[in-house]
């Protein structure tokens, strides 16, 4: 994913920048430890939505989890778009797409 003009600025870097503009000051004041606790709470809400099977709830909870993950990345100095390059060539272990690792 890229955040350049070709994709209308909707890439991972653009998403991380938007979340930073909205929440970074508050998240820094909270600290990464308490922010991580919020992230875990959102993962629990996503798990409940998955079990209920309501597609609208699942979508809402998944993007909330993504936003909290992005917040944690920003607090820890991780550029998620750069980190995502790990998967650019396929599976990081076997380099295949789809993954051809035994037992995967």
Quick structural summary:
With 104 residues, the chain is an all-alpha fold. It has 4 helices and no strands.
Structure description:
- It is a single chain.
- With 104 residues, the protein is mainly alpha-helical.
- The protein has one domain: Orthogonal Bundle (Helix Hairpins), CATH 1.10.287.1080.
- The protein is 62% helix and 0% strand.
- It has four helices and no strands.
- Helix 1 crosses helix 3.
- The longest helix has 21 residues.
- The radius of gyration is 16 Å and the shape is globular.
- The N terminus is likely disordered.
Q: Topology of this protein?
A:
Elements: H1 12-30, H2 32-52, H3 55-75, H4 80-83
Helix pairs in contact: 1-3, 2-3
What is the overall silhouette? Answer: globular
Topology as a string of helices (H) and strands (E): HHHH
The CATH architecture: Orthogonal Bundle
Query: Largest sheet at a glance?
Result: none
Task: List the uncertain runs.
Answer: 1-7
Strand content: under 5%
CATH topology: Helix Hairpins
Cα-atom Rg, whole angstroms?
Answer: 16 Å
Task: Provide mean pLDDT, rounded.
Answer: 92
**Quick one: how many beta strands?**
0
Number of helices: 4
- The total number of structural domains is 1
């Amino acid at each position: 994913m890229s955040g350049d003009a070709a994709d209308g600025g909707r890439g991972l870097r653009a998403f991380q920048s938007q979340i930073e503009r909205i929440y970074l000051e508050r998240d820094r004041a909270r600290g990464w430890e308490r922010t991580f606790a919020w992230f875990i709470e959102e993962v629990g809400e996503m798990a409940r939505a998955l079990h209920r099977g309501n597609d609208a709830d699942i979508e809402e909870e998944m993007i909330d989890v993504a936003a909290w993950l992005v917040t944690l990345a920003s607090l820890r100095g991780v550029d998620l778009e750069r980190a995502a390059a790990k998967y650019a060539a396929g599976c990081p272990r076997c380099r295949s797409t789809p993954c051809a690792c035994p037992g995967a």
